[in-house]
């Protein structure tokens, strides 16, 4: 049988440098654990625009559809800010999500013990935090029609449409309930049913799906109150399910609870393919960080942990995923810190590749 295929799209900014460390980790699993992948690389975002005039070529899109899993670094940068909307680097990412139909975006926010002091919140509020945000990723205001900027009288009007069908709500709700069953059996759904019809429907459908999961304790919150509760006492949550835009905001908020955006991975999952694996794209929650790109300062952990999620959700290698996550925990406990993980401590940070070295050492030590 041939090896499972991994398509790597490093993208822009710090994407290529953090992905270089992930490549070493992937090789380690091939050498030491007999988990070999057929790895290939391609362009996305600004890098693809520079090469082809589009942030994702049709060829790359087709390769992503065929891959067993896609691993993406980051897209975007100031150089592309003035481009037309239709060819902005972000459109490459949105096209992948939409055409692969990756409707369930899993964004864990976990606080590593070694970093609890680093959160802007008090230590007892975040220590041991382990929540999962499930963000709907292929619909809502990101994709709803009509959209655009139109002329009306003597001024322009910007229009976007929040739109959710029942089936779109149902499938992401089901993913969230399934996850809750494997975790703490608590699910909180967030919308704005007090002002939005789409929120009313969201709440109704999630409640209906919940009847199939009587063991899961389901609650509902308005998304603004949810944001407040996330900063007040985040440990009250286990799994949160929410729409595309609220999920974008709430997942950044949840991420920062843990101390650094440089730590958090994500998985975007769609329907099962013929081989039973879900369509899947894995990417760090952080962006392309153009201000530090190319300087070896970036923290590769979010991207490394994204590969751990790939091991778990695409390749049924939960044990090996846990090995990699444990290695990251060890490295942090040992005190290894990239620049984003240092406050005003006056210590010299380690580089991107030194962090990669440390994780590889911890992996060796795990054998
Ligand atoms: C994210 C990002 C993206 C989004 C951008 C880069 C299009 O913020 O993945 O959270 O808004 O979804
Ligand atoms: Mg975002």
From TrEMBL:
Gene3D superfamilies from the UniProt entry: Isopropylmalate Dehydrogenase
GO biological processes: L-leucine biosynthetic process
Enzyme Commission numbers on file: 1.1.1.85
Catalytic activity entry: (2R,3S)-3-isopropylmalate + NAD(+) = 4-methyl-2-oxopentanoate + CO2 + NADH
Binding residue positions for Mg(2+): 224, 248, 252
Cofactor notes: Binds 1 Mg(2+) or Mn(2+) ion per subunit.
Keywords: Amino-acid biosynthesis, Branched-chain amino acid biosynthesis, Cytoplasm, Leucine biosynthesis, Magnesium, Manganese, Metal-binding, NAD, Oxidoreductase
Annotated positions binding NAD(+): 77-90, 287-299
Keyword Amino-acid biosynthesis listed: yes
PROSITE patterns: IDH_IMDH
Family the UniProt entry places it in: Belongs to the isocitrate and isopropylmalate dehydrogenases family. LeuB type 1 subfamily.
Protein purpose: Catalyzes the oxidation of 3-carboxy-2-hydroxy-4-methylpentanoate (3-isopropylmalate) to 3-carboxy-4-methyl-2-oxopentanoate. The product decarboxylates to 4-methyl-2 oxopentanoate.
Protein name, as recorded: 3-isopropylmalate dehydrogenase
Organism: Roseivivax halodurans JCM 10272
């Amino acid at each position: 049988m041939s090896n499972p295929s991994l398509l790597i799209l490093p993208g822009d900014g710090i994407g290529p440098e953090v992905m270089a460390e992930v490549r070493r980790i992937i090789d380690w699993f091939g050498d030491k654990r007999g988990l070999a992948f057929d790895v290939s690389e391609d362009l996305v975002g600004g890098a693809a625009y520079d090469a082809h005039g589009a942030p994702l070529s049709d060829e790359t899109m087709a390769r992503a559809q065929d891959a067993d899993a896609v691993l993406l670094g980051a897209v975007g940068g100031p150089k592309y800010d003035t481009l037309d909307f239709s060819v902005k680097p972000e459109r490459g990412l949105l096209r992948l999500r939409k055409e692969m139909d990756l409707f369930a975006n899993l964004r864990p926010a976990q606080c590593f013990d070694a970093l609890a002091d680093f959160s802007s919140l008090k230590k007892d509020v975040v220590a041991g935090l382990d929540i999962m945000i499930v963000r709907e990723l292929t619909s809502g205001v990101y994709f709803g029609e009509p959209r655009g900027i139109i002329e009306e009288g003597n001024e322009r009007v910007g229009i976007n449409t929040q739109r959710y069908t029942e089936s779109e709500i149902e499938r992401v709700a089901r993913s969230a309930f399934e996850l809750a069953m494997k975790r703490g059996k608590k699910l909180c759904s967030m919308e704005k049913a007090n002002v939005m019809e789409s929120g009313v429907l969201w709440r109704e459908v999630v409640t209906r799906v919940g009847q199939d999961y009587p063991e899961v304790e389901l609650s509902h919150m308005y998304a603004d109150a949810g944001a407040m509760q996330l900063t007040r006492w985040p440990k009250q949550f286990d799994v949160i399910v929410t729409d595309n835009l609220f999920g974008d905001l709430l997942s950044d908020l949840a991420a920062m609870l843990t101390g650094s955006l440089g730590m958090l991975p994500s998985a975007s999952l769609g329907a099962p393919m013929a081989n039973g694996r879900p369509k899947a794209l894995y990417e760090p929650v952080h962006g392309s960080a153009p201000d530090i790109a190319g300087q070896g300062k970036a923290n590769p952990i979010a991207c490394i942990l994204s590969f751990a999620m790939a091991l778990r959700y695409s390749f049924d290698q939960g044990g090996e995923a846990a090995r990699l996550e444990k290695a990251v925990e060890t490295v942090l406990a040992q005190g290894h810190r990239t620049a984003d993980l240092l406050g005003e401590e006056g210590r010299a940070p380690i580089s991107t590749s030194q962090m990669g070295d440390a994780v590889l050492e911890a992996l060796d030590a795990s054998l």
